[in-house]
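Hey, quick one: can you model this chain's 3D structure?
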Amino acid sequence: MQDATKFYIDGQWVTPLSSERMEVINPATEGVIAKIALGNEDDINRAVAAAKRAFETYSQTSLDDRLALLEKLLLIYKRRYDEIAATITAELGAPITMSREQQADVGVSHLEDFITALKKLKTRDTLYNGETLLREPIGVCGLITPWNWPINQIVLKVIPALATGCTCVLKPSEFTPLNAILYAEMIDEAGFPAGTFNLVNGAGPVAGSAMSKHPDIAMMSFTGSTRAGKAITRDAAENVKRVTLELGGKSPNIVFDDVDIKDRITYSVLDVFNNSGQTCDAPTRMLVQKSIYGDAVAMAKQVGDTARVGDPTLEGDHIGPLVSHIQFDRVQSLIKAGIDEGATLLVGGTGKPDGINEGYFTKPTIFADVSPDMRIAREEIFGPVICMIPFETEEDAIAMANDTPYGLAAYIQTQDDAKAERVASKLRAGMIRINGAFPRPGSPFGGYKQSGNGREGGLFGLEDFMEIKMIHRP
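Sure thing. Here's the predicted structure for all 474 residues.
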């Protein structure tokens, strides 16, 4: 068992002030793989004080100096790439092929893109009225990241903070803290000045709340549940700090009757099953035009029946476990709710897959004949569960798609480009993915409504960490 109890504060690995500890569990075996400390308010105060001191000088560094540090970090990350992939497999349960090709890979692609974006960033500009605009680092940033795409979210928060001259305190998810510790080691090796980056593990209601309330933190950037995002916003309000949020989703996937059913339904099912369904913008509400609904249901069942669940340490395109017993219990309760409410169970159901007795594995599940008022159609399940809902007309599809408190992403499947543009313009979501298009690095990631505010990635992601200052001259 790995002893990972120290925090990275002010350029040193230090013993926590808190005495509380937590075991890190391998979700595939339910075995303990590490022990971490859960930081308290005193630990947060120590980290924030270090970041505040460092900001005085780091905020004045040149863009070229910061670019050099980022480029060195990129080389170190590439060298330790396989360690990151293996660690994510151990603590999250993502199959190793997926960890290498997706989970670890975004640590390269996002960092490369931020380097490109930083070179394009205008920190001094002249407005159309002739006055001078400056963009300056906002200050000390509190960063809270989730467990489902851990390195992805760490890079999307830590890198723009450091790139723009901010300093930061990172609190990763306590369920997947080990990849964050590896990343802290890389930042240290890259030579970022002491105090610019600090890592404190801890629970959201304690360490996270202490960050949100801290008067010396100028900005909170959070990715996670809508419930927690609301709590952070309330805590931050006392000091009127900036809050950016990337929260939950219940993304609609509109399948029109002009598509190649085999191609588009296969894509739609496998996209939800990726990462065991633990992706905030997964297309979990499949809205299918009635004229092809029967064929689409049959194809979804065929694809779902071939989905395999298995050991995440083995190569392959199979599905791994859910991250924890908490997530397993939640997904199971919602699958049961779907059955109890009368949805047609095509594939999967409650319980673990046949032949699997340990680990937080769940059956990939597809429901048909779901009505929009069912719990499974309205609540974010965050597991490999799909709800198929029929619709009549384009207008019906748009109304169903928008009938949700979320607005992170929406998907459109059609061969009609004009229809795709028309529908996309009416969907209340931050990202519209047409015919399986995948977001490129640098495109802003974020949503409408209760899916959050602010954007991550590229120039927009950098600007979120900056303040605007105007210079007025006579």
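One thing worth noting: The CA atoms of residues 7 and 243 lie 24 Å apart.
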